[in-house]
Specification:
Chain A is mainly alpha-helical. Chain A is built from six helices and no strands. An eight-stranded mixed β-sheet of chain B has the order 1-4-3-2-5-6-8-7, sandwiched between helices. In chain B, strand 3, helix 10 (234-246) and strand 4 form a beta-alpha-beta unit. Classes of the chains: A mainly alpha (122), B alpha/beta (398). At the A-B interface, helix 1, helix 2, helix 4 and helix 5 of A face helix 1, helix 2, helix 4 and helix 5 of B.
C-alpha cells in the first residue's frame, strides 16, 4: 500500500477505457460516439427523474427535507416497484424507435408510394 | 407487473466492504438494470426477427445455401442495422456500468483501502504470492470491459478492481443474483445439499474465485469445511478476503495461486473442487492443464463441479450459438466461443474423469425471497447473463 497521498483524480480515472479493441458498430465512427453520448444522457435523465421522485416522496411524507434525507432515501417495496415501473416505462419511450422497427420487421409495410399510387387509381 | 422490474439497488444487502453508494449512483444502476432487461427481453427478440426476415434470406440469395457456422451468421448480422444498434446499446450499457462503478469506488478508495487492510491484517484470511504469474489469457484484454481487468490497480495494493466488480454486478445481471449477488454459489450449495444430504466435505477448493461471490456462500453452507479460494488476480482477492471477513465468514482463505499449478497441495487433498463461470476465461491449452490439476488434488469419492453456460453442440441451432457468442466479441470474453465449442465432457474425461462418472445438471440462481419476492422466471434466456447455468460435474471414483 502506497503511503504517498497524492489525491486520486477519480473523475478522470473512472472513465478509463478497457484494454481490448472496441467493436465498430457503424460505418461512420461518429455514429458510435454519438450513440455513447445519447445513451449516457438517457441514463442521466433517468437519474434525475428518480431523484425528483425521491424529493417528492420525502416531501409527501415529511413536508420538509434536508439533502442528507435524499442521499439516505431507500424506497420500501411498494415505492421500489413504482419507481422500477416508471423507469421501465421511460426506457420504453426512449427505445420506441427500435421497438417499432422490430414490429415493422415482423409485419413489413410496402413503401408508402405504393399506397399513394394505388389510392390515386382506386 | 411487479415481476417485470428489478429490485431497487438499495435493496442489496450492505456489508462492511461494500462501497457507499449515493442516491444518484444507485439510480444509475437502477437505470442500467432495467435497461439491460429491456435489451435482453423486449428488444432481444428483434435480433431473431432481423435474422429470419432479412439476414438469412439475403445470405441464401448470396451464397445459395444456409450458413454453416455461427461465425457466418455473425458476419452477416454485423451488417444488419437492427443488430448493430442493439449491440451498440448493449456494449454501451456495459461500459456505463464500469464507469459508474469506478466513479463510486475511486472517489472513496482511501477509505476502502484502509478498511480492507484492517480486515486482512486481523483476519489472516488473505495469502498473496507475488511470485504467481499473471497468465496472458487474463491480461490480453480486460475481461467484461472492466478497465484494468480483475487484477487492475489504480495504485499499488488497492482494492479498486474487486470493489468495482462487487458494486456493479447488480446492473449487469438485472438484479437477479440476490442481496449479496451470491445466487450462483447458493445454488451450488443447495444442489449439493439436495444431492448428497449427508455429505460433509472437509476441504473445498474454489478455482478462479475473484471476490468470492460464489465461494463464500459455499463456506457458509458448510461451516465445518475449510474453503480455499484461489485466483491469479491478487487485487481481486484483497477485496474478496476483506469482504468475507466483513461478512463474518471465517472458514475461507483467499490464496493467490494459478489453477494450472496446484503443486502446493498434495494429491487427493480436497473433497470438492469447484469452478463457477470460470472455465471460459482460460485458454485452450490452460483448460486441460487446470482440469488435470483439479483431478489430481481431488480425493477419491470427491466432487468436481463446474458451473458454465451450456456447450454448443450439433443439436444447438447455429443462430442460438451465434447469440450466445455475443460476449466473446463484444464483451471481452475472448475464450468464450472456443470454450463453448469444446466437448467439455471429453476434456474432463481426458483430465481423468471417465464419462460414466460424469453428469450435467441445470442449476438456477437462488435469490433472497424476502428482497426479491417475485424474481423473474429464470428460464428466460438472455444469452449469457441469465441466472440459469449448466453444471458439468463428476464424482471421482472412490
Amino acid at each position: 500500500m502506497s503511503e504517498v497521498e497524492e489525491p486520486l483524480d477519480w473523475i478522470a480515472r473512472a472513465g478509463k477505457r478497457a484494454k481490448g479493441r472496441r467493436p465498430e458498430y457503424f460505418d461512420d465512427p461518429a455514429v458510435d460516439r454519438l450513440v455513447s453520448m445519447v445513451l449516457a444522457l438517457v441514463g442521466e435523465v433517468s437519474v434525475l427523474r428518480e431523484r425528483l421522485d425521491t424529493v417528492e416522496r420525502l416531501l409527501d411524507a415529511k413536508g420538509t427535507i434536508a439533502r442528507e434525507d435524499i442521499e439516505r432515501y431507500a424506497p420500501d417495496r411498494a415505492a421500489g416497484e413504482e419507481r422500477g415501473l416508471a423507469t421501465k416505462a421511460y426506457i420504453a419511450r426512449v427505445m420506441r424507435g427500435l421497438q417499432q422497427e422490430l414490429e415493422a420487421m415482423q409485419n413489413p409495410d410496402p413503401p408508402i408510394m405504393e399506397w399513394v399510387e394505388r389510392l390515386a387509381k382506386e | 407487473m411487479a415481476a417485470e422490474v428489478p429490485p431497487p439497488y438499495t435493496a442489496l444487502t450492505k456489508h462492511p466492504m461494500l462501497p457507499e453508494v449515493g442516491h444518484d449512483e444507485a439510480a444509475r444502476f437502477n437505470f442500467l438494470a432495467n435497461f439491460n432487461r429491456h435489451l435482453s427481453g423486449a428488444l432481444g427478440a428483434g435480433n431473431r426477427i432481423a435474422y429470419e426476415s432479412r439476414v438469412l434470406p439475403a445470405f441464401r440469395a448470396e451464397h445459395g445455401r444456409d450458413p454453416e457456422h455461427r461465425y457466418e451468421i455473425r458476419e452477416a448480422m454485423a451488417r444488419d442495422p437492427w443488430h448493430r444498434m442493439w449491440s451498440a446499446a448493449k456494449r454501451n450499457s456495459m461500459e456505463m456500468r464500469q464507469h459508474n462503478g469506478r466513479q463510486i469506488v475511486l472517489r472513496q478508495l482511501d477509505r476502502l483501502d484502509a478498511m480492507a487492510r484492517q480486515f486482512n491484517e486481523h483476519s489472516g484470511q488473505l495469502e498473496l504470492d507475488p511470485g504467481v504469474e499473471h497468465p496472458f489469457y487474463q491480461t490480453a484484454v480486460d475481461i467484461h470491459c472492466q478497465p484494468g481487468g480483475y487484477d487492475g490497480e489504480e495504485r499499488p495494493g488497492d482494492v479498486s478492481a474487486g470493489a468495482n466488480y462487487d458494486v456493479g454486478i447488480f446492473a449487469t445481471t438485472g438484479g437477479q443474483l440476490g442481496g449479496l449477488n451470491d445466487g450462483g454459489g447458493q445454488a451450488v450449495a443447495a444442489w449439493v445439499r439436495k444431492e448428497r444430504p449427508d455429505w460433509q466435505p472437509r476441504r473445498i477448493l474454489d478455482v478462479g474465485a475473484t471476490v468470492g461471490h460464489n465461494a463464500v456462500p459455499i463456506a457458509q453452507a458448510f461451516p465445518d469445511a475449510e474453503v480455499i479460494a484461489i485466483d491469479t488476480a491478487g487485487a481481486s482477492l484483497r477485496y474478496g478476503a476483506a469482504r468475507a471477513a466483513g461478512l463474518g465468514v471465517r472458514n475461507i482463505r483467499f490464496v493467490e495461486a494459478n489453477g494450472e499449478d496446484l503443486s502446493r497441495w498434495p494429491d487427493g487433498h480436497f473433497d470438492w473442487v469447484q469452478t463457477t463461470m470460470f472455465l471460459h476465461e482460460l485458454s485452450a491449452k490452460a483448460m486441460p492443464r487446470l482440469l488435470k490439476e483439479c483431478h489430481r488434488v481431488l480425493a477419491p469419492g470427491g466432487l468436481i463441479f463446474h458451473i458454465e453456460q451450456p456447450q454448443y453442440s450439433a443439436a444447438m441451432p447455429l443462430y442460438e450459438q451465434f447469440m450466445r457468442d455475443w460476449d466473446a466479441f463484444n464483451n471481452n470474453e475472448p475464450f468464450w466461443t472456443a470454450m463453448h465449442a469444446q466437448d467439455l465432457k471429453q476434456v474432463m474425461a481426458e483430465a481423468g474423469f471417465p464419462l460414466e462418472n460424469q453428469f450435467v445438471v441445470g442449476v438456477r440462481a437462488v435469490v433472497d425471497r424476502d428482497i426479491f419476492p417475485d424474481a423473474p422466471a429464470a428460464e428466460e434466456e438472455d444469452y449469457g447473463r441469465s441466472a440459469v447455468w449448466n453444471a458439468y460435474g463428476a464424482w471421482k471414483a472412490a
